[in-house]
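TL;DR need C-alpha cells for one chain.
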Amino acid sequence: MKLIPIALLAASVLGMTSCSSSKKMAAPSPANIAFETYDDFNRVFLDSAKYIYRNTSTDPAATDRWNGAAAIWCQPMYADMAMNAMLLARANGDKKAEKQYRDLSNKIIDGNIAQYLDFDFDNNDTNRGWFIYDDIQWWTITMARAAKILGRDDCRELAEKSFARVWYGSPRVGDTGSYADPKKGLEGGMFWQWQPLEHPNANKATDGKMSCINFPTVVAAMLLYDITPANRKADPSPEKWSNQYGSFTRPHYETKERYLEMAKEIYDWASKNLGDMKTGQISDSSHGGNRGGHPLIYNQGTFIGAGALLYLATGEKEYLDNAKAGADYSINVMSENGILPWARNRKNPYDQGSLEQGVYPAIWVQYMDLLVNDCGQEQYRDFINKNVAAGLSNRNGKGICDGELDKPTPDNRMIGSYAGSSLPSLILLFPPK
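>> reply
TL;DR here they are.
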C-alpha cells in the first residue's frame, strides 16, 4: 500500500470527501480532520443512551460486561479521548468545539460513574464492579486528568479514593492491597490482583507484579502530585480495620510529598525488575523475581509516561533518558515498517482478550504526547505522523480504521472499539500538519 507522504498529508486529506455519508467535510483544517475522525468513532461505538462505549461495532447497546459494554479498564481511555478533543479545540481557539467536547467529556465520565456502581471501589462485583488492581488504577489516572482539565473536585476525590484502595487494600473485600511492602517481606513493587476474588488470600512476594499495574501506579501518583495542594497535611482520620491477615490503615488522601515519594519508589522498583534501561525494553511481568511475557506497546507507553512525568517534576535527566529509551524500543524494535504493533492473537483475533489489546496504541500515544509535546522530544513526531497518515488512508465507509493502520479496513468487518480507538487517539494528540 502507498502511504500519503507527510508533507502532502493535509492537502490530500482535505481533498477527500467525508468517510461518513451522513455529513459533509468540515472546514479545511488539521483540527477538523481530527474532530471528524473522532466523531466517526463516537457514531460507531458510543452508546449515547448511557454515555459508555460498546464492545464492538456490531453490539447494539453497552448493557454490561457480558452484554455489549467495552471493558471497564478501557472505558477511561475513551474518556481521555474526549478530554483530548476538548484540549485540541481550546488550543485552536474553537470555543464552540471546546464546549461540545467538554460537555461530552463530562457525560462520558458521569455515564461511567453511573454504570460502575457509583465508583464504589470496594464493591468487587465481577459484572459492574472492581475486581483487579489495574482496572481501578486506569480510572485513577483518568479521574486525576478530569480533575485538572475539567475542574471537577468530585473527580479528584474519586482519584484519591481509587488510588488508596489499590495501594492499601479494602476492608470490605479483604485483600491486602497492591503495594508489596518490603518491610513485610514482599520485596517491593505492586501486585496485579487479589485471589480468590470473593475471599482473597494475602498476597505473597512470589505473586505476579505486572507492568500494567506498576507503571500506571507511578503515572497516577504523579498526576495526583500535580493536583494536590502544597500545604496539605496528612489525613488525621484514616480508615482502620483488622482481619485474619493483620491490621490495616487506609488514608483518604496523601500529601503532595507523599505522592511523589510513592511514585519514585515504585518507579525505582519497576525499572529495575521489569525493565532494561539500556535497551528500553519493558517485560510484561515478574513472578518471584523472574521476568516473563513479551514486551507490549501499552507497557512501553506507561513506562514512557512515568519517566516523563517524573522528569517534568524533578528535572532529573535519568528519567527522561529512560523514557526516550522506551520510545526508541517501541519504534525501532517493536514496530514494523514504521507502524505501531497491535498485539492481538492472530489465530483468534475476536477473542475478548485479543480484542482488548487493540487499545494498546491509544495508551502508548497518550504518553508519547508527554514526551514529545511536554518534554520537547521532537524526533518522534514523524513516526507518529506516518501512523496517522496510514490510518486516514485506510478507513472504511464509516470512517473507522482497524488496529492495523497500514491495511484497508473492510466495511463488513466487526471492529472492536479498542482497535477502532487507535487512529482517533493518535490524531487528537498529533493532528496532521
